[in-house]
Predict the 3D structure of the following.
Amino acid sequence: MLSINTLKPAPGANRKNKRVGRGIGSGHSKTATRGYNGQHSRAGSKMRPGFEGGQMPLYRRLPKRGFTNIFRKEYVVVNLEQLAAFDAGAEIDPVVLRDRGIIKNLRESVKILGDGDLDKALKVRAHKFSKGAAEKIQKAGGSVEVIA
């Protein structure tokens, strides 16, 4: 029977550590498996990631491209096919979407996109609408309201 006190690693999974620099009899003395001279044989020989031995590193050889717009507004996307699950005449806003688990939190701005079909009249309030989504909602007899 398998229980906590009978657990052990698979055969060959554990190996003994290589104990270096512990005398001639160990077979790993003198240079302690570091070889002879050179940068790596010295104590504290660590190089930063990307160091290429003094050659111009790759991250400096390649040109910089593009930029990040710090004023970009991020939206959580909700498609019409997700709104089709609501009853006809329902009022949908970010609070209702959060309660249904469609969006995570209320700090996020919501954008309604027109993927899917809608055949019910819904009153939808969101921060932004795509042109196609707004047309489909109004065509189905619903209303669109933009939240500031």
Notes: The helical segments are 58-61, 80-83, 94-99, 131-139.
